[in-house]
Design a protein that fits this description.
Strand order of the largest sheet: 1-2
Number of helices: 10
CATH class: Mainly Alpha
Pfam families: DUF1275
CATH architecture: Up-down Bundle
Structural class: mainly alpha
Organism: Ructibacterium gallinarum
Number of domains: 1
Shape: globular
Keywords: Membrane, Transmembrane, Transmembrane helix
Oligomer: single chain
Largest sheet: 2 strands, antiparallel
Protein name: DUF1275 domain-containing protein
Length: 254
């Protein structure tokens, strides 16, 4: 059976009733772009802002434990700052989506990209002598919001700020490829290809970030405003036109 699908007020097309519509913020290319930006940020914070990766918190927890275990209480307690920034990012991204949709008729996903662009713009103005903790905490905060907001790429759970899970999923996918090599069941391949793509774009972002950090130093982070801007314009256009009547529809995984 077929059903009519409306976008905004216009009849767009007919699709099978079992076909799933993915919001603009769930599209694969958005996730590939976001994880490339995250790879760039990783290179930026490691090379220029304290030799640390701020896209996730495992490293900070380990460093806090090392400091506390060595009796360096002041150094150890400092790590509560970036960890708290990450917690705050998750809180904000969980708390504000509904009020935002009610008052402005745009998705939180769209607003978040604008917030990230503003944060990146501000970080580019930081002098090289500025405390590295400023950039670290800002990246902690926006990376946490992004991780909690963008959860599934066209139905496949994804992380847009770090690569560990993608590496694990590639291993899982390769195992399934081996087990199913003599069967017609190849359903795992689409997921495997997506995780390979995420890993590739994360690494590519890190490579590009390294190159630009060597040439532009702190202002290199402004480069990421370009891909973020493309995403922002796309999502905003969808919010105001093609997905205007679907503002209450939650992305998968929420």
């Amino acid at each position: 059976m077929e059903r009519e699908v409306f976008k905004g007020s216009d009849l767009v097309k007919k699709v099978d009733k079992n076909e799933r519509y993915f919001l603009a913020c769930e599209r694969d290319w958005v996730y590939f772009t976001l994880i490339a930006v995250a790879g760039f940020w990783g290179a930026y914070t490691y090379l220029l802002r304290g030799n640390i990766f701020c896209n996730a918190q495992t490293g900070n927890v380990v460093l806090m434990g090392l400091a506390l275990g060595s009796g360096k209480w002041r150094d150890g307690l400092y790590y509560l700052v970036p960890i708290s920034a990450y917690i705050l990012g998750a809180f904000v991204s969980e708390f504000f989506p509904n009020p935002l949709k009610r008052h402005f008729c745009v998705r939180w996903d769209t607003a978040l990209i604008l917030i990230e662009m503003a944060a990146v713009l501000g970080l580019g103005f930081l002098p090289e002598t500025a405390p590295v903790q400023i950039a670290q905490v800002v990246i902690n905060f926006i990376a946490s919001m992004q991780y909690n907001t963008f959860r599934q790429a066209e139905g496949v759970p994804m992380a847009t700020t770090f690569a560990t899970n993608h590496i694990r999923q590639i291993g899982v996918g390769l195992a399934k490829e081996f087990h199913r090599r003599h069967t017609a069941n190849k359903d795992h391949r689409e997921k495997l290809v997506k995780h390979c793509g995420m890993l590739f774009f994360f690494a590519a972002g890190a490579v590009i970030g390294t190159v630009f950090c060597h040439f532009l130093i702190g202002k290199a982070i402004w480069i990421t405003i370009v891909p973020l801007g493309v995403i922002f314009v796309t999502l905003l256009h969808a919010d105001l036109t093609t997905e205007k009547d679907m503002v209450e529809k939650k992305p998968a995984g929420h």
